[in-house]
């Protein structure tokens, strides 16, 4: 007596060896569950592969125990969301990997490998001088790329030059001092043909073989060029005092102090007082003031000089014409600035001038003489003898 399948007790688990009834070409047969499984898999695998997989195609998935079709676009988006939903990497490491597609093959690449590729590509395509345009005239603001403590930074041409010059200066000054120069010593030179090295011997040849010192070295003499090229001889005598005009020579030089002393002593003012006996209630008295242009030795300078002369009742005081009259006895009056007080006088050919100061009664007067910036004075004391 047969049993209905629906009335049979359900199997607790399937081992694959269980038998199922089948009809094969009208003949009753049996087959195991494993045979059904293998047949089903073989049939699925025998389906022709698709050449493309449009996102509108569907795939079957088991959802909540039920087999359901799902669009490929939904599956792809789910995968993308899953990837981007991962936790952020706080500090990437060289061994971290990224997915990539090598032709038609999916692969991974480490961050260190990717970094090496990027660096090589930048060097080849960007930093390779052969691939760049030629630069025109350079400027101090032009930029270079450099690595500083492992960090890429920029630097200007000016800063590069400064660093080079500072380094060169430090290098040169740190060298041992030379004990003497030799003809084989080499100098760095820039010529019309470019940068070259030049020996001391070549430099000496270019300037004529050097300078020959004087045969003798007389003290207080300044060497000067002789008749031969690049040869020095004893030169002009250096004088600390300036000689009289009649003794002056073209073979001597005066020191700065000698010239200043001469300038300070160029004008000499001599006052000569005149006394008179009082014969009446009012007596007219006169004082003569002689002026001479001399050098620091007191010798007269026999040439004309323009002097500013004025009379005052105080030493180095302002010009005053009170109770006095003035006459120019020697020299030429160029300008009367204030009558009886202030004059511009040209000396005679011997460098001498004289003025006469006339007073009424005994008194004192000062005569000031200016030549250039220097002013000298003379005191005229005029007395009455009863």
Q: Which consecutive residue ranges, at least 5 long each, have pLDDT under 50?
A: 271-284
Strand line-up in the sheet with most strands: 19-20-17-22-23
Q: How many H/I helices?
A: 6
Structural class by sheet pairing and helices: alpha+beta
Strand content: 35-45%
Total beta strands: 24
Alpha-carbon Rg, integer: 60 Å
> How much helix is in the residues?
10-25%
Largest sheet: 5 strands, antiparallel
Mean pLDDT: 80
Distance between the termini: 197 Å
The H-and-E topology, N to C, reads as: EEHEEHEEHEEHEEHEEEHEEEEEEEEEEE
**In one word, what is the shape?**
rod-shaped
Please describe what this structure looks like:
- The chain is an alpha+beta fold.
- The protein contains six helices and 24 strands.
- The protein has a five-stranded antiparallel beta sheet, with no helix packed on it. A four-stranded antiparallel beta sheet has the order 14-16-21-18, with no helix packed on it.
- A hairpin with a 2-residue loop joins strand 9 and strand 10.
Q: How would you summarize this macromolecular structure in one to three sentences?
A:
This protein has 386 residues and is of the alpha+beta class. The protein is built from six helices and 24 strands. The strands form nine sheets. It has a five-stranded antiparallel beta sheet, with no helix packed on it. It has a four-stranded antiparallel beta sheet with strand order 14-16-21-18, with no helix packed on it.
